[in-house]
Specification:
It is built from two helices and four strands. By secondary structure, the chain is of the alpha+beta class. The chain has two domains: 1-32; 35-95, Nuclear Transport Factor 2, Chain: A.
Length: 95
């Protein structure tokens, strides 16, 4: 016998599980996007690159796992946290 309520409950449960799995994926891939870099930019060069792009109040900048992590405030006073490619300065992840 077909039970519509059970069917709808299971259908919704699968959709919710798929949604949570999808939302967790970008964080996993972002972590893998950085790797060992042969010639990373200097800290000073990275700071200058960030300032040119409007990230004017850099509170911390550290290199780890092939990426720079930058935290601070932009020219509009909005807080930022960025993960940047250490060789190119390209933004991999922004919060």
């Amino acid at each position: 016998m077909f039970n519509a309520e059970v069917f709808l409950f299971m259908h919704r449960a699968i959709l919710v599980a798929a949604l949570f799995a999808t939302l967790g994926a970008p964080a996993t891939f972002a972590e893998e996007s950085c790797g060992a870099v042969a010639n990373p930019m200097t800290k000073s060069a990275m700071e200058q690159s960030l300032v040119r792009r409007g990230y004017t109040q850099i509170r911390s900048l550290s290199l780890h796992n092939g990426c720079y992590e930058a935290k601070g405030f932009d020219a509009h006073g909005k807080r930022f946290e960025l993960e940047l490619n250490a060789a190119t300065g390209a933004i991999h992840n922004a919060e």
